[in-house]
Design brief:
The protein is built from 14 helices and 16 strands. It is an alpha+beta fold and 560 residues long.
């Protein structure tokens, strides 16, 4: 009985254990086990991925930091640093500028010049014309009125690049009136010389008898006066006379224009085809110098066999040559003056923290040349300080000078009174950055005068004005600074870039030397370690061999 009870209990416990096993095998417990398995697999996979990523990083790091790569980088950095010391980034920029590639900043700035040039015009009012014609005053007296301010707009178009490393384009200049900057009433009247009549008489003073007879008839018919009253606007833009208009209708070949307005004549034909030098083959000194003007190398209107002056080597004033020195002479071409104007180094100065050079127009620019090659003289000869400009104005008797006859060989009261020459107000100069040839400020001041020849063959009132030079007006072309983007670019290129390039080049050199030195030191250290290991192993091998021989010897002796 006791055995049966025990057997029953054992069966119960067995069944209980079986039930508990059944409960463990239910679906919930199975899913838990599967999730735990998934989690374990995920963790293992993540750990494996991390390990693989670390391995790849270590491999890349090992590749990047390998001795061969370090050696290549070291040599490359040293070569780059030496090259940057020899050929600096500034040299590269100046060389690239020579090509004038469309889309690059130098070309874009030139193709659309900034509106920075102001034209200030001053006219002369005659105050004693009646007394002068009556013989009460020996000389005319003039007073200056102005300025009348315009913006001179410059347009570049029709650009084409030639095979001989030159660039041809069309340059057009025209003025735009600026009412906000003007205090002069253009409707105000002034007394001025009758430029059309006096100019035609002076132009034809050596004409034949028939031509002079026609002119006398016109004078008798219209009875013009040597001095007239006109508005300032008409004097500048619409100045004519019935005698001039009739003369042009009768003999248009002798009288090419009927409107003698001062600015009207200056800007009547100011669309010019220019050809300039570009490209590395010309070098920095000849960059953007004029090679042809309207297809010709000489100044327009002059005979190349008589006048040795050539227009090539000059500049229109927008861009100058690069790498200028204090010994360089800048040739400035302005059709208004009809001659090349030389500028010489004057002083060093700083504007906007940029070191600059100032070049002044020679005070002898209008003097006579004594070697027989004076292209700007007339017959009879002009006074020093005057330059013939008639070749650019249909042979009309016009001469150029400094404003108020400043400097030159003309005393200020030689022809008229009332002039007040002042070096500060009447000289011309350009201030530019010498490496890039960028003009920061430029002022060109010129005076136009009427040259009156001997008029004794006409009425007495005209004869009184004979053999004189009458100031008509003078103009100032002033480039007032630069746009901020150009100024900042020049500042960075000249002031910031050179020391910055030295720092970068020096840093590259030091890093290259460091990499090579480190590599050499590491190789020497590895060689020493290898030698030590080989020596240690060889010593161990010898000791082991000695021990083996000793053991074999001892065994042999015992056996014996």
């Amino acid at each position: 009985m006791s055995s049966e009870k025990i057997l029953h209990e054992d069966n119960g416990s067995s069944s209980g254990s079986l039930r508990s096993d059944d409960s463990d095998s239910n679906p919930d417990s199975a899913s838990d086990s599967l999730n735990s398995l998934y989690k374990t697999n995920d963790n293992t996979c993540a750990e494996n991925c991390i390990e693989e990523t670390k391995c790849e990083v270590n491999k890349k790091r090992g590749t990047c930091c390998s001795p061969v790569v370090q050696c290549v980088w070291g040599v490359l950095l040293i070569l780059l640093s030496i090259g940057s010391f020899i050929f600096t980034p500034l040299d590269f920029m100046l060389l690239e500028k020579l090509n004038m590639r469309p889309g690059m900043p130098p070309y874009e700035w030139w193709s659309d010049p900034p509106d920075e040039v102001k034209l200030r015009t001053y006219v002369f009012n005659v105050t004693n014309h009646e007394r002068f014609l009556l013989g009460l005053d020996q000389k005319l007296n003039v007073e200056e009125i102005g300025p009348i301010v315009y913006l001179e707009k410059l347009l570049h178009s029709n650009v084409r690049f030639n095979e001989n490393s030159t660039m041809t384009y069309t340059a057009k200049r025209f003025p735009i009136y600026l009412p906000d900057l003007n205090n002069i009433d253009l409707n105000a009247t002034i007394i001025v010389p009758n430029v059309g009549v006096l100019g035609i008489f002076s132009y034809l003073h050596n004409a034949n008898y028939f031509v002079k007879t026609v002119l006398r008839s016109l004078v008798s018919m219209y009875n013009p006066e040597p001095f007239v009253q006109v508005s300032i606007y008409d004097y500048l833009w619409n100045f004519t006379d019935p005698v001039l208009e009739m003369s042009r209708s009768l003999v248009p070949g002798l009288v090419p224009v009927s409107n003698t307005g001062m600015l009207a004549r200056v800007y009547a034909d100011f669309t010019d085809e220019m050809t300039v030098k570009i490209g590395p083959q010309w070098g920095h000194k000849e960059f953007f110098q004029i090679d042809r003007f309207r297809g010709q190398p000489q100044i327009p209107g002059f005979d190349p066999d008589v006048c040795p002056d050539r227009i090539f080597g000059s500049t229109e004033g927008v861009m100058y040559a690069q790498r200028l020195t204090k010994q360089d002479v800048l040739q400035y071409w302005r059709k208004t003056v009809c001659k090349l104007m030389p500028l010489y180094f004057d002083s060093e100065l700083t504007m906007f923290n940029v070191p600059l050079y100032r070049y002044n127009l020679s005070e002898n620019a209008f003097d006579r040349v004594t070697n027989g090659t004076d292209c700007y003289d007339t017959v009879p000869s002009l006074h020093p300080g005057l330059s013939d400009t008639s070749k650019c104005y249909f042979d009309f008797p016009m001469v150029a000078s400094f404003p108020h006859f400043y400097t030159g060989g003309i005393p200020k009261d030689k022809f008229v009174t009332g002039l007040k020459p002042d070096r500060y107000k009447h000289n011309s100069f350009v201030i530019l950055e010498p490496y890039t040839g960028t003009p920061f400020e430029a002022v060109a001041r010129m005076q136009s005068n009427l040259l009156v020849h001997d008029l004794t063959g006409f009425q007495e009132k005209f004869a009184n004005v004979s053999n004189s030079v009458i100031p008509l007006f003078w103009a100032e072309y002033h480039q007032e600074g630069l746009p901020s983007k150009i100024r900042k670019t020049v500042y960075f290129s000249i002031v910031i870039l050179p020391p910055l390039s030295i720092i970068i080049s020096t840093t590259m050199l030091l890093i290259g030397i460091y990499l090579l030195t480190k590599l050499i030191y590491s190789n020497n250290l590895e060689n020493d370690s290898l030698k030590s290991i080989l020596i240690f192993k060889s010593k161990n091998n010898i000791a082991n061999k000695n021990k083996m021989l000793a053991f074999e010897k001892e065994t042999f002796l015992k056996t014996s």
